[in-house]
From TrEMBL:
GO molecular function: sodium channel regulator activity
InterPro entries hit by this protein: TipE (IPR031578)
Gene Ontology biological-process annotations: regulation of sodium ion transport
Record protein name field: Protein tipE
UniProt keyword terms in alphabetical order: Membrane, Transmembrane, Transmembrane helix
Any single Gene Ontology cellular-component annotation: plasma membrane
Source taxonomy: Eukaryota, Metazoa, Ecdysozoa, Arthropoda, Hexapoda
The keyword Transit peptide belongs to this UniProt entry's keyword annotation: no
């Protein structure tokens, strides 16, 4: 009998503590007989999960907002230029170009267009304007200068957008490489099939498509994932819909 009483006392520490007090008396917070109950393992796990849920929700909400702003930022800088480049249908194999005119212009009125701009959102008062002659045949290193050209005096741009940011785009270096005193007489260039007046120095189908996919997929994936987790945790309708089967199984059937 004494063994049974000791086992019950070990399973219920609160009951054992209360049983030492005289009947009719209670232990207050200031009493030496007062011993606060320790939280159970389930209570600790619930507390940890609530804190984890709070901080995770905060991070997911911030990520969703940043994903929206990132997508809006990438539209004019990556998505729109990539779509225009794809629609321009540049030839995959470079043709032959030779500089026909190079002008280093100044003032805004003379820089209505430019072969290279360092910055895609600001107007420039100084610019390089390069025009080239085009021969629509594959470029071969060391080949002689063509005697006949398919197109003449075409606008020559550094890339399909005609602009970029340092250090990837340096307009002074670009002008010196293609129109400087030591520039080659002929060089490879890429021309558009839908815009005959457009010729560029740099073009890559793989990098254009890769940039477009990353700009569309990454922000969208982060936004959808964050919103889905937040809806599952905090939206009662979504939570009930996802756990409908669990709720149904929690009720006993009539036969039971």
């Amino acid at each position: 009998m004494s063994t049974l009483s000791r086992s019950r006392a070990s399973l219920s520490p609160a009951a054992s503590e209360r049983s030492t007090l005289p009947m009719g008396e209670s232990a207050g917070p200031g009493s030496p007989a007062f011993k606060p109950l320790e939280p159970t393992r389930e209570q600790l796990l619930n507390h940890f999960f609530e804190r984890f849920k709070f901080y995770t929700s905060l991070c997911l909400g911030t990520s969703a907002i940043l994903a929206v702003f990132a997508f809006l930022f990438l539209i004019p800088f990556v998505v729109e230029p990539a779509i225009q480049t794809i629609l321009a249908e540049f030839v995959p194999e470079a043709g032959i170009c030779s500089v026909s005119e190079h002008v280093h212009a100044e003032t805004l009125t003379n820089c209505t267009w430019a072969s290279c701009r360092e910055g895609c959102t600001t107007a420039h008062t100084k610019c390089h304007k390069i025009r080239v002659n085009l021969a629509r045949k594959p470029f071969v290193e060391g080949a002689p200068v063509p005697t006949e050209w398919d197109e003449t005096d075409l606008r020559f741009l550094i890339n399909p957008e005609g602009c970029g940011y340092p250090p990837r785009v340096n307009c002074s270096v670009f002008a010196n490489d293609y129109a400087g005193p030591r520039a080659p007489k002929i060089f490879p260039c890429y021309y558009s099939l839908t815009r005959p007046d457009l010729v560029v120095a740099r073009y890559s189908w793989e990098s254009t498509v890769r940039g477009l996919i990353l700009a569309l997929v990454l922000p969208t994936t982060v936004f959808v994932f964050s919103l889905s987790v937040l809806a599952y945790w905090h939206c009662r309708c979504c939570n009930k819909a996802c756990n409908r089967r669990v709720h149904a199984e929690s009720f006993a059937s009539k036969e039971e």
